[in-house]
Amino acid sequence: MNVLVCFSSLKEFNTCFEDLSNELIYEIFDLLDFHHVYQAFDSLNARFYNLVTNSTLPIEVNLSSISKSTFERYNKDIILPNKHRIRSLHLSNPCLYDDISSPIHILSQFLHLKTLSLNNIESKHLEYLLPTLVSLPRLSSLSITSIDIIINRTAIYSQIIRLPALKYCSLSLKGSHYSEVSLPTLDKYSTIEHLIIKHGISTNELYNLLSYIPHLRRLYVSYILNSWTTYMKPSPFVSPYLTHVSLDLSSISFDVFEEMVIDIFHVVHVLRIFIRNNNDQMYTDANRWEQLILSHMRNLRIFDIRHETWSRNITTNNQQIHPSTCLNSKKTHLQSVQHLRIDNENEIIHYKYYFPNVTTLTLENSLSCTLIKSRSLSLTKIIEILRFTPYIRTLIFESMPLYGVNYKSIQQNQTFQLVSNTNMITNVIFKQRCTLDKLQLFVALCSRIQHLTIGHDTEDLESIVRFLLKKRNENTSHLCSIRLVSTCPFFLT
């Protein structure tokens, strides 16, 4: 639960909800799940019954968590009589796909439907459902998550490509990684502009699918796999609008990725890559990256790469250091980097001199849960990295134990005082629990702080608020917003 704490002097006044105008009540309804509106107001009185049932405003239907008896009444009173008002439909209860009275069986009648989300759906239902969606002239957003194995995903792709107005598509289709059935020759191209693929897809499948999506602007693929069969690429196709790409390359070689860049991703502006446990050393070769980007990605503005390796003999997650990578070259001075993420203390030692213009710093620990507490960054290392990045504006902590720190003596440290006087940090975020003594220390270190987000427990809440609102506290004189994030599930229920 998030709690936003605001301090202001507002005059208290009382009003009755029923005194509000219909227009204002409709604005309130628009912020709520319509099913909750129906439950709360449908039987209240005649006025609210009419507001709920006789409105012409669009309806968003969410049937994710609803009992059978409640659904039957809701379906009879609201869904069926108002098919023309329904703009979005979300289903995740597998039982509703089998229910003969479910709106899923008459989707072709929802002519104003724009958003459809089908979670936990079986392949047998997709087979008869997808062909009916072609008759929906306004369907622009489609999300599908299958609950069982889909033997032939190509059939699903073919039906989706035929949808006349689709702009956004998110797919998570369980299936065999070794099934590579090519799309049949289609006489139609898709209107999709934003495609998310959350299942494993081979390079052959991806090439084949993208050849029918010429208007694609954003692509996210959670897992790309090497193809197991020889593949004849489709005739050259152009993706002139594809500017944002995010890929997991953990299972393919750099050579395969390079070929994809040349064929498909050569006009990309923003490229985000994640690589885990891939032994191809070419991914850490700065010269190969430089050659690829300069030769084939001339429009690239943002290049975000995260490369993780796992040592068989060491039970820690390592960011390996390779002498050939650009981040480890002493000749490299990364003036353009604005956001720096530190995962362990070794990275501070190697990278602290290379990012003079960083404005946002995220401190994390990518180790396993059993090691996080013992391997968090020490305060001295944090101060050290802040010393060499004086333009940081935002500081984020996933966790910050700081066990064994002498809070009074460390503030007398010369480096601490130097960083306190020179840093420009205005936004500090503690995502986990933060005690009063830790907070006092970082407020002293970041005396220009304006926005503070902290995790807390009920015992520290009063003392934390008192400290932050203390009039004579010079270190909080610039503070203008406080956000308290509860770390206890029983707090503020």
From TrEMBL:
This is F-box domain-containing protein. It comes from Adineta steineri.
